[in-house]
Design brief:
Elements (H helix, E strand, L loop, with lengths): L4 H17 L8 H24 L8 E9 L2 E7 L1 H24 L4 H20 L3 H10 L1 H11 L4 H30 L4 H7 L3 H18 L8 H8 L2 H26 L1 H6 L1 H20 L4 H20 L4 H32 L15 H15 L5 H16 L1 H26 L16 H19 L2 H28 L1
Helix pairs in contact: 1-2, 1-4, 2-3, 2-4, 3-4, 3-11, 3-15, 3-20, 4-5, 4-6, 4-11, 5-7, 6-7, 7-9, 7-10, 9-11, 10-14, 11-14, 11-15, 13-14, 13-18, 14-15, 14-17, 14-18, 15-16, 15-17, 15-19, 15-20, 16-18, 16-19, 17-18, 17-19
């Protein structure tokens, strides 16, 4: 295709943000909401068209655009089967976030929508980048709008949480920038495709792997550098929590596959026990912490850390099932976690409390809410028939092939996830309506119903019929692993 479809996907939200900036919005901010929603829906349709014309039978990067930018740095973007689903997830979640701001954002709505659109551009850029410098700029650029979303529209401790989020993630990425500069000095290029072919010197791989790991581990987040996430989720507005959980965390998981495994296969093999240990601790420890939470948002935030522990575990199994399961789990978590934060936002907007003890018996007052909340609770538990089951099942299959002990320990996390999610649902939805303030609480309105069911449909549909997703990623993952094993065998032969 001659049409620069990837650049269009990246730039269209920026253009929309600039247009909104110059709008003299009316008192109800209707014009800004309509424009931002139109732009995000246009980007969604463009990404679905991209998926439609995408060739699933090749592992080569497609729709590649390569232009000179800053001398030695080229603007190079392209997608393969691994990255395209994350682009679609980004464009799918963004319009739902915009729809959800009708009642949640009380002031500076125009600026909030600009931040959402800018963040969409930067996140799409992360998944399309084929140059390390371009990837770094998009990867770190996403900090700015999220910092503003938490710091301006967050809760009482918003400034503390915003700075904690910013400092954790920024400091974690400084070493990655040093590593990128080192790679350029050693190889003379930052082009990802070229680096795949020429390889990184073996003597540098361990230290460079650790530098990239320092950034991805914080952003995932992995234990013990996960403490910024619960604070950020609790203080962020609902739409901010949705973007953070559904997409921002996936940028690091994608980075592990594309860069940690792709550029440093020898180091990745060496650090497998290290990653397994951190992943299993994250799965078990944060699940236990989630059981102790009284704040609904904090409980779901800690569950996100546990689920991303499954993702890192599956990625470093270096198996077809493990990596495909991790990608599927990230897509599933993007849908389910987004919906769970929206469900919390629904009751918070009505009663302005997130404490579990303040609820109970909502099924009698909010039957529609109880149904959709149940769907996503079961998705988070990993019930067969939901996307959560398929991802976790494949990850555990891949882990059993590599380490029986790691798989058994990770399986404990599945049991614990059922414990804290069902405990949350029982206390909020079932039981007697003892709190008099809950009597007459309004059930889901039309907008909330639409948003939650839009998320529920793919959660169940792809739980029963995952072939469209697996058909997209299978070839790319297979060829990726073949090249990975070739690089490892070459190293063993040389030794």
């Amino acid at each position: 295709m001659n049409f620069p479809i990837l650049s269009s996907l990246i730039l269209l939200p920026i253009v929309g943000a600039l247009f909104i900036f110059f709008i003299n919005s009316d008192k109800n901010n209707k014009s800004t909401k309509y424009v931002s929603l139109f732009i995000s829906l246009a980007n969604l349709l463009l990404s679905l068209y991209l998926w439609l014309v995408f060739n699933k039978d090749t592992s080569n990067f497609q729709f590649v655009e390569n232009r000179e930018w800053l001398g030695i740095i080229n603007y190079k973007v392209g997608i393969d089967g691994i990255s395209i689903l994350f682009v679609i997830l980004t464009t799918f979640i963004t319009p739902l976030c915009i729809l959800s701001v009708n009642s949640t954002i009380k002031y500076r709505l125009k600026e909030f929508l600009i931040s959402i659109l800018v963040m969409e551009s930067l996140m799409i850029g992360v998944f399309c980048s084929l140059d390390l410098v371009i990837f770094y700029l998009f990867f770190e650029g996403g900090l700015i709008p999220m910092f503003l979303i938490i710091g301006i529209w967050g809760g009482e401790r918003r400034v503390y949480s915003a700075f904690k989020f910013f400092l954790y993630t920024l400091l974690g990425s400084v070493l990655m920038l040093v590593a990128i500069i080192t790679i350029y000095w050693v190889t003379g290029t930052t082009d990802v495709v070229e680096l795949y072919s020429i390889g990184i010197p073996k003597e540098l791989q361990n230290i460079l792997w650790l530098a990239f790991f320092s950034s991805f581990a914080v952003k995932t987040p992995m234990w013990p550098v996960h403490t910024w996430l619960p604070d950020a989720h609790v203080e962020a507005p609902t739409a901010g929590s949705v973007l953070l959980a559904a997409i921002l965390l996936k940028m690091a998981g994608y980075g592990f596959i594309r860069f940690s495994l792709g550029l440093f296969p020898i180091a990745s093999e060496y650090f497998i026990p290290f990653v397994y240990t951190l992943s299993i601790v994250a799965i078990i420890y944060t699940s236990l912490v989630a059981l102790m939470q009284e704040d609904m948002k904090k409980l779901i935030a800690y569950s996100s850390v546990a689920h991303m522990g499954f993702v890192t575990l599956g990625i470093f199994t270096m198996t077809q099932q493990g990596i495909e399961g991790s990608i599927f789990q990230m897509i599933s978590h993007g849908l389910v976690s987004a919906a769970l934060f929206l469900c919390v936002g629904v009751v918070y907007e009505r009663k302005h409390t997130r404490l579990i003890k303040d609820y109970g018996g909502l099924v009698s007052e909010m039957p529609k809410y109880a149904i959709v909340f149940m769907v996503f609770t079961l998705g988070a538990v990993g019930l067969p028939g939901t996307t959560g089951f398929i991802g976790e099942f494949l990850i555990l299959m891949g882990t059993f092939k590599k380490s029986f002990i790691a798989a058994i320990l990770a399986s404990i996390g599945v049991i614990l996830s059922a414990a804290y999610m069902l405990w949350l649902y029982r206390r909020v939805v079932f039981g007697r309506l003892n709190n008099a303030n809950l009597k007459g609480i309004l059930d889901l309105n039309k907008s909330e119903t639409l948003i939650l069911w839009i998320l529920a449909v793919p959660t169940v549909f792809f739980g029963f019929y995952p072939e469209p997703l697996f058909g997209t990623i299978e070839t790319s993952v297979s060829e990726f692993l073949i090249q990975y094993n070739v690089n490892i065998n070459l190293y063993v032969t040389e030794k």
